[in-house]
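Researcher: Next sequence.
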Amino acid sequence: MKKSILSLGLAFTTLCCCNSCDNDLVEFRTNDLRITIEEGTEWLHDFPLFMGIKKKNPPQIAIWAEDSIGNYLSTLYVSHKIATQGWSVAGGNRRKESLPHWCYKRGVQYEDGLYLPTKKQPLTDALSGATPTGSFDVKIQPLENLSQFVIKAEFNHSTDFNDYYSKTATEGEDNYSGGKMGSGQPAVVYEVYIDLTSGQKEFTGRLAGHSSPDGTNGELSTDTSRLTTALHIVKQIKITLQ
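Model: Next structure:
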């Protein structure tokens, strides 16, 4: 399967981003890191439009770096809709339930009190882009003095309801996730621990848990027993030292 690739300079600040580049046109240099996001069976989700018509949507995504004790360092990539408040059929919902772990880790509060970008104050284009429709790679270049850190990635679908995270749940209930145009199942978060002094060439990610269903905090729950399709958005995340 052909994959798209995002090429990111990392100090941990992003210098450039290419959302539709061909792998063959991107040169990986020695000590670059290749982050590979491999799509799962639920990468594309049926999103309802009108009169029974549905659209296959990829998930919303945020990828960022933290230090080895969990302090936020820098956002590497975030999908365009949440970076620009570009929800076309959200009915005015700011979708704070979409990627709350990243939002709160980033810690930037906007004029309405929420922690996600607005149309007036979007995230820079260098950090964001259209969501890839399948597996993709991210290229990063760590600083020379940064040898141990964590890469996190958060994924979420709109209207990904199941028996527990129901569209009929009401605000204040544990399973409420934004109403009929909200998330349904909460965002899933993966993490990869990187130690460039270990001699390893490849690091594999693990499912760390899920975010707050209603997006009212940045906490991470390790209990994923009530998730179904959300567990299959991503098949695997691995990071390879070039």
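Model: Confidence is low (pLDDT under 50) at residues 9-25. Residues 100-106 form the longest helix (7 residues).
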